[in-house]
Design brief:
Belongs to the D-alanine--D-alanine ligase family. With about 325 residues, this protein is of the alpha+beta class. It has ten helices and 18 strands.
Length: about 325
Amino acid sequence: MKKTLALLTGGTTGEWVVSVKSAATIAQNLDADKFDVYKIMLTQQGWFYEPADSVKIEVDRNDFSLNIKGRKITFDGVFIAIHGSPGEDGKLQGYFDMIGLPYTTCNALTSAVTMNKGYTKSIVTGIENLHVARSVQVFKNTGYSVEQIKKELKLPYFVKPNNGGSSIGMSKVTHGADLQKAIDKAFKEDDQLLIEEFISGREFTVGVVRLDGKIVALPVTEVETAKEFFDFEAKYTPGVATETTPAPIRTETKSRVAQIAEMVYLKLNCSGVVRIDFILTEDEGDFYFIEINTIPGQTATSFIPQQVAAAGMKLNDFYTKLVKETIG
């Protein structure tokens, strides 16, 4: 029997552009023999289903249903493809928990906590072989001292919105005199910031997912960019960054990375597919945790589709297993 799925896209942040592209990839690769899929767009104006042949239909938020030409459509579950708020920060998960509808992502608590980079780092600290950069958390509505931050941390720094995504509002600071400007820029995106010491090394990202009841780390991707760091442009402009999947790292490094990534997934009580960004210092040395994305991009050029292919899986099968694991 086919399952009826809502594929939820859009959102209320600048990342909605990426969400729409992610949803297009997912829709294309959800098995039509197994799923009836209704793509629903969430914006500040409302939640709508937009059928090709008629005007958009608003979702009844009492039970997340649709009324199409007098026929009520209810869903077996929701595939959430919204990056940023309200899809990645726990708000939608809390709503779906209240109405008893399963979804493909981490639960409300994990989603909310992992959107905050500072809190996440506190939780993963202590995992064997995992390191975190020294950092300071700054809040807009409480006083902070730029001079004190300079005393506590060594240059260069990364200044980033604590709850942001896609590297929006992020800066690398190489001169102490530029710190205030970077703080002001990040405060335009969020009222909490994380200022952390720059860790020199190679940048990587790895997808982690529970499939067939087992936590699996996908093949790792190495990210190289001519830019100062992997910013929004490097992430979403073809040719700005070089991505190599699987990454050219030693076999023992691969197994150590997989073990750490799986421990992070467990410790943060994740479900669905997540992506962990990290740095390896010098000769594939220490593993430094950067951040976790609980709704990683699924666009045609995104890391997860690349890693699924490198693991020898078809996206179609991957999404089928993901839905089975999270929605049933």
